[in-house]
């Protein structure tokens, strides 16, 4: 299938999963993960109506954001190095998905103060405790929230998680359900929370069924990655 057909298929699956979960399709934000995808293809996806795109690398994000329409909502979804923070503050990033450590929070706060601005961010949680992935373990979340409580330039908007790559859908649903439980519990204390970002090309339907309202879909839209 081509790009247009892929986008239509993803939208239909989101709508179906949302309906099964008793929600509306428009309640789920689709972030098209455009890492390694050329600018022309991203622009074609934009013409299909997509407005949220996700990038892993700051350098690639900066290049694309300069070349593409200004109303795109850019999401940074990869692990962010502290020395790259200065390039993203006040530079069009709509949402950072990967706030995962104190040193990063400190750098975000410092740079936002310097530029008299703020940044919207999701705390990354590693529900399955996979050593190969970043993110806080569930039992570390409370302490982290306490550590950054005074960081007034970081606007917390919820949580992000990456589930293990597995065909075991029962296990996947359990991981997603734990993230939703965390989100619901903390939303009571943080009224600014609005996003639970979970679900990728291989599991976004299950994620929606368990409460995700933001999915990060790349391969199902753009095809398999070509890494240089």
UniProtKB/TrEMBL annotation:
Transmembrane regions listed in the UniProt entry: none
Keywords: Pyridoxal phosphate
Modified residues (N6-(pyridoxal phosphate)lysine): 35
Organism domain of life: Bacteria
Pfam family, one: Ala_racemase_N
Segments forming domain Alanine racemase N-terminal: 9-224
InterPro entries recorded: Ala_racemase_N (IPR001608), PLP-binding_barrel (IPR029066), PyrdxlP_homeostasis (IPR011078)
Function: Pyridoxal 5'-phosphate (PLP)-binding protein, which is involved in PLP homeostasis.
Similarity field: Belongs to the pyridoxal phosphate-binding protein YggS/PROSC family.
Protein name per the record: Pyridoxal phosphate homeostasis protein
Organism, scientific name: Christensenella tenuis
